[in-house]
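Quick one: structure for this chain?
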Amino acid sequence: MVELAGVKVFVSDTAVATEGDAVQLIVDAHYAHGAEWIAFTPEQLGDEFFELRTGLAGAITQKFVMYQMGLAVVGDISSRVAASKPLADWVRESNRGRNLLFAEDLDELTERLQDRQ
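Got it. Here's what it folds into:
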């Protein structure tokens, strides 16, 4: 657990492969740690998450929205974004929203969280 820009962020060390994994982690992070956001590396989310046609990213993101928990993807996804216009568009729009953020590192995530206050 870290506090970034006054926001409690649970930095996960757990992989999320299914909607059920996401729900369990959301519940654990919120009730055990009081987290407002959960941060994952791209590797923890896996390739399928970034292949938008699979629907996994939308399904997992929807769970975070339903449970009012922020989802942060922290790490380099530049090669994935360069290879997929739909993914690039989604990342750009997500970073303008309130529930899903993409950042290179925790410093950038801190800046993005500050911008929301």
